Fold this protein.
Amino acid sequence: MSPETNYTLESYQEVKQLEAPNLDYKPQLPKSYRPKIGLIGCGGITIHHLNAYKAAGLKVVGLCDLNESKTHERRDSHYPNAICYQDYNELLANPEIDVVDIALHPAPRVAAIEAALNAGKHVLSQKPFALDLDIAERLAKLAESKNLKLAVNQNGRWAPYVRYMQRAINADLIGETNTVNIYLNWDHTWIQGTPFESIHHIILYDFAVHWIDMAVNFFPTQSAERAFGTARKAKNQTLNSPLLGGATIQFGNGVANLALDGQCSQGALERIVITGDKGVLTATGAVTKISEVTLETAEGIATAQLEGAWFDDGFQGAMLELLCSIEEDREPFNSAQNNLATLASVYAIIASADSGKAVPVGENRQLGENGQPRSR
């Protein structure tokens, strides 16, 4: 074997330990803007919304749900002076409310977003904010025409480790992104017997949208072009929807890969590795609970120890980014317009999983209520 070969992929030089870059990864409050907020939809996830808003000192003055007991429960536990509504049009008629958080299911969400924008309210929409790309584009244009901000609650973007990696990429610390590799194994069998079990592609559509969104944004200078998706049932799974999934997204000069196992009952793990032409970012730990990020470049290796957690910093970050964008009169990082690339990638992955063929991103434009593609 010649001395130039390195089949064992050994490193022949000592790696220098460096101090981690100080990157601003925590959610930021607006300087002075403190609007009154209304919440439409008071399901289980909104506990985290309200926990986050209360911790940030935000003012929630209206709560709405068809189930009156839910609004009373959220009011009593978080904002005792909030007004409870059963009709969101009544909440939207409240002139004191400037911003609404719409946490409804996808089917009724579109009408609520339109009503809120037409009522002159800025909107934070639950994800995915539309099941049809044409509708998503129309909502983004409606907000723009009314000089209002429409943002999407992609809260995973403000998980401390995700935000730190995004900041590192944006600061050009690893150069141009080449690959994004995301691996997850966890136990998703809790959905058995719940409405979630009826969602076709529960893993790719309802769960993986967070990590697909991350992957798309980890390529800030490139657009997603083609996608391939796959979904399979584990040998011993009893749920209707496949709990094993994978996806590959092709960019102009890069590739993102996702491997997902929702049938694993032990050792829940999340791992993200991002390679660039100048360095590598790595984050490993319990799913959604990673507390450190490693950066390796030619200069050496550094490990950042992070504070906070996805639950509830991610929910705080999504809302605070919207508020900051209103105060600064700019497009929020989590804007509806920005989120279109994520939606298009999810739609392409699901269409591919059903057809077995790679699908151009943007070609499949509609999803059914259960995440199943449908023809126009």
